[in-house]
Amino acid sequence: MNKIKCFFKLIRYSNLLMIALMTFLVYYCLMLPMFKTGIVGAVPSSPAFILLVISLLFIVAGGYVINDYFDVEIDKINKPDKLIVSRVFSENVTKFFYITLTFLGLLSGLLSSIMILNSKFYLLFAILFLLVCMLYSYSAYYKKKLIVGNLIVSVSVAFAVFLPWLFEILYLSNNTLILYAVGDTLMLTLPYVLIYTIFAFFMTMMREIIKDAEDFKGDLVTLCRTIPIVLGIKKMNIILGFIVFLLCAVILYYQMVLYYQHSYFALSIMFIIWISLPISIIKLFNKKVDIDYHSYSVFLKIIMLLGVLSMIFI
Question: Model pTM?
């Protein structure tokens, strides 16, 4: 197998592209009013933000690597033909990848923090370090725990959506006069950022539960306490249905906001999502249909991508 190709699979390059897209769109589309205030210094320099995104991508890539490192036995059962750790890369090489990616992520984050916060750089750096700890603890300890692992991953992805707003508020906290001048404008962007943060959280939670169903055999042998194993497929579907209900309620509210703003293209995309999710859940409850959980996971990723791209048209 081509080692370069395997490395990109190991770090889940498609997921990293999604995270980068979400982060940039939140910053440059949802927070666009900050760029129109006409006040010098209302936003930090683009290099500082780009460094922050690079930091996030390296840290998350490291999280994927260490996850596969701890999942070797599970993957030998669930996907032996796609096994990378121990088959393409030794466990020692995999640990080296994790340490290197995490170090580069923290270094980039440190540089970004210093650029926007000067002596208070530790505020942003501590948040990034906490993310590293969360991703490692998920792979090493909490992945096999009921619900806790799903929550950690969902919060981590949602954090990527919320990070640009947090980045801006930390920057302005170091520039109180500018914060006073543009504070109201910044707060106007918060509801939009929160809606997409909630959307990312729920969509990721659904994908993680579906992935647990997809990995049922390997998780069962290695004594993982995932939702499909502990509660069963029927109750898992009920939980997914409840998440879809909550998500559709949020999307319905957001559709009304988009309608009053005359953002009809974004509204159309959200309407497609609003219709598609309940229909997909109904199929899960249909016992006469064999569910391909991998295909359903891909479907959820496409839905998530559509939701993210709707930011462009606001």
Answer: 0.92
